[in-house]
Amino acid sequence: MVEYEEEVESQVSLNDYLRILYRSRWLIIISFIVVFSATVFYTFTTDPEYEASTTLIIQSTGVMERSLFDFDYFGNRSTLISNQVEILKSRNLAEQVVKRLDLSDVRDSLRLFQPNEEGEYLSLRDMVSILRGNMQIDHKKDTDVITLTYVAESPFAAAYIVNTIADEYQLLNTKANRVQLNELKDFVEQQVAKKEEELRLSEERLRDYQEQEKLTNLDEETAELVNTLATYEAKLEEAQISLQATLEFKKSLEEQLNERRESLSSEISQISTPYLRSLQEQLAMAVAERTKYVIAIETEAEDANRRFFESNIHLYDEKINALRKKLQEEAKKISSSSMVSDPFQLTQELVSKLLTSEAEIKAGTAKINALQEVVNQYSQKLDALPAKVLELARLERRRKVDEQTYILMVTKLEETKIQAAAQNRNVYVIDKAIEPLEPVRPKKKLNLLLGVLIGLGLGVGLAFVREYFDNSVKSPEELEQLGFNVLTSIPKIQMQKFEKKIESRLEKLGPIEGKKIEARLITHLDPKSPVSEAYRTLRTNLQFSKIENDLKTILITSSGPKEGKSTTAANLAIAMAQAGRDVVLIDADLRRPVVHSIFNMDKDNGITNYLMGTISFDELPKKTFMDNLSVITSGVLPPNPSELLASKKMEELLKQLKNRFEIVIIDSPPVVAVTDAAILSTKVDGTILVVASEQTNRDALKRAYSLLDSVETRLLGVLLNGVDVEGMYGSYYYYYYHHYYGKTGRKKSTFFGRFFS
Where is each AAA domain found (predicted)? Predict the structure, then answer.
């Protein structure tokens, strides 16, 4: 008996992959047809969609970010663009666009305002959702340009709607900028009116005092002191106004944020880090030092050295700018971190500006303190003058301060008006959308190509998945890898190929019985077929097999039912008989006997009747259509088949049959299901294990071998039955079959057979 070996992994070749694909060709074809048909149906039935785009440019600095009283809010450009993108995506803008479209002359031509199949119209919320879903916004890297794209059901709708979105966005931006401009202009106008009144009063007081005291002008030294003091007081007042403007701007930012979260104003000053507070203090100190340095140059340095010292001012400016940049970066980190409790509702830009404005407030306060010290010093010098001269100097100083401050505020007011006239928005349309010529979806060529690729890919994938989970034996090579001796491979019987040839022989038996006998007795009915040749190959292999004793009794079994063991037993018996041997075929499957049906006999008076002593030995063998072929049927089905087959009378029967016939072939039940085959295998010269291609599970085959090996069965080898040669693409059997048996009885050679031989 052949020793069973564990399955050995072999290198997978291209032929193995081709064999899998060829075996699953119908699965691949069906998958391709289904997927490609669905793709074609979708592509040619889907409504076309058109895409139109408009290009916008957003200036990096808005109105309130411009310099005011030497203060720059240094907003971050990337954050600004990100905020504008979020505004374009906002529900508020979408609602305004829907309302404008609803009032337009083309309302009835837009799908948004048309009823559905049930006659129902979309709600405002649904229309807003569709509008936002069909809109796409792209920001070109390293630019302030935004591309706004909209997809609609027609070329006109796509272009019209995207242009309407751009127009409404411009209006929204203009409105927001006007609010900021009005706040800035109102503040400056209030300061101008206030300073105008203060200047008028200071001029009247100076005039009245001069008339009362009969004093006209101050002496040169006193006049210079008054002018210097007035200059620094004007700078001090300018710094105070600038600080007030910063506070007003901070308040405006807080009011915008309070529309979303009212508690931010009280909490924003608490949002900080030690590093940010350190930077704020350093900035305030640097601004104060620069102010003191400038004052020292103006008051103490001689004209010859003043230019030298003034050249060092840029060092302070560089330090201040560096600190402001660090503040900006730290503020940006904080505004985008978890320290801001609701980052989805608060814009990072506003939070960043609020944090940086805190630093500017501290810097402005430090500058005011430095100027205040200088003003106090000159005020002390002024206080040392005589009473009448002192009062006149104070009134003159007050007039000069008010005059300089008034001129400054008027200048700022004019600058604000110029800004309002020149720019009340920072969004401009570069290119308006035009109607597209071709739809963007469905893309017919691409869809069809994807349909082909996906269809084939899915089919191939399913083929390999099925192969992965399929544990059945399919080819002789697999049996050899498992360590079995393969006696031969029996091709699958193609009954339709032999119907015409044997129709005359079976016309008396009826269609059902005829096909049964046709499938079982192919060796007799069509001796030139490949199947018949395969059984003759099995006969030859058995005749020349090297065993110690003569091979007279052969047991045919399988691991499970319906694997072709009875057909194999019948055709092997016929092949042996055709060779001139005197053969008897025993139906020892006492549970589901079929041999009597194959030979169209009555199963009564069979082996069970003899073992129970109801008939004699001479009555047991039954003649068949071949002179040297006899059949012993099963007889009456007993309740205890295993006991009958294991009896001594069964052994005596086999001895008698061996003496009378040259070859005894026994058809037995499956070895895994019952113990009958294992019992009989100990009483015969050799056993053949039938394996059904693409049906017998490897685990079942291993179990069957284990059962036979446990009783020391002499296993002659395995027979692979029902091989689908059409599905054995790349196998040597494919070449063998098609080269010699392209048609019944005629040789044929194929290109693939030659290529894979």
Answer: 564-712
Q: Please name every residue paired with 501 in a beta bridge, in sequence order, or none if there are none.
A: none
Peptide bond into 442 cis (omega under 30): yes
| Alpha-carbon gap, residue 735 to 754, rounded angstroms | 7
- Both tokens of residue 639? 């309740």
Name the pairing type of β-strands 686-692 and 553-558. Answer: parallel
Structural domains of the chain in order of their starting residue, each with its CATH number: 14-46+442-467 (no CATH), 180-425 (no CATH), 482-500+526-723 (3.40.50.300), 729-757 (no CATH)
- Cα–Cα dist 595/572, whole Å: 13
Nearest to 64 by CA among 436, 440, 356: 356
Phi-psi region of 280 (alpha: psi -120 to 50; beta: other; left: phi over 0): alpha
What share of the chain has pLDDT > 90, as a percent? Answer: 21
- Distance CA(472)–CA(478), nearest Å, equals 10
E strands, 90-238, are 135-139, 145-152
Render pLDDT for 512-527 as a digit per residue (tens, 0 to 9).
344 444 456 777 777 7
CA diameter of the chain = 171
Residue-wise pLDDT tens digits, 614-648: 899 888 999 988 889 999 999 989 888 899 899 99
Q: Are 625 and 717 in contact (CB under 8 A)?
A: no
Which tokens go with 320?
């201040």
Q: What is the pairing mode between strands 622-623 and 715-723?
A: unpaired
The packing angle between helices 91-102 and 77-89, to 10°, is: 50
Residue of 226, 221, 236 lying closest to 400 (CA atoms): 226
Could you tell me which residues come within 8 angstroms of residue 140 by beta carbon, excluding any fewer than 6 positions away?
A: 146, 147
Work out the mean pLDDT of the chain and round it to a whole number.
77
How large a percentage of the chain has pLDDT more than 70? 71
Whole-number Å distance between alpha carbons of 244 and 670? 102
3-state secondary structure (DSSP) of residue 287: helix
Residue 569, amino acid: A
Instruction: Mark 196-229 as b/e (b = at least 16 C-beta within 10 Å).
Output: eebbeebeeebeebeeeeeeeebeeebeebbebb
| Burial tier of 379 (Cβ tally within 10 Å: 0-12, 13-18, 19+) | middle
Cross-strand bridge partners of residue 692: 721
Beta strands in 493-552 (DSSP E): none
Per DSSP bridges, beta strands 629-632 and 583-587 are parallel
* CB-based contact 319:235 (threshold 8 Å): no
Q: Collapsing DSSP states into helix, strand and coil, what is residue 114?
A: coil
Helix, strand and coil content of the chain, in percent to the nearest 5, comes to 60, 10, 30
Backbone angles phi, psi at 191, to 5 degrees: -70, -40
Q: Where are the alpha helices (DSSP H) in 3-90?
A: 14-23, 25-45, 77-89
Cα separation, 228 vs 233, whole angstroms: 9
Q: How would you classify residue 12: left for phi > 0, otherwise alpha for psi between -120 and 50, otherwise beta?
A: beta
Q: What is the SS3 assignment for 636?
A: coil
Q: Residue 216: pLDDT band by 50, 70, 90 thresholds?
A: low
Q: In DSSP terms, which residues pair with 151 in a beta bridge?
A: 51
In DSSP terms, 720 is beta-bridged to 489, 691
Highest mean pLDDT among 4-8, 35-39, 220-224, 270-274: 35-39
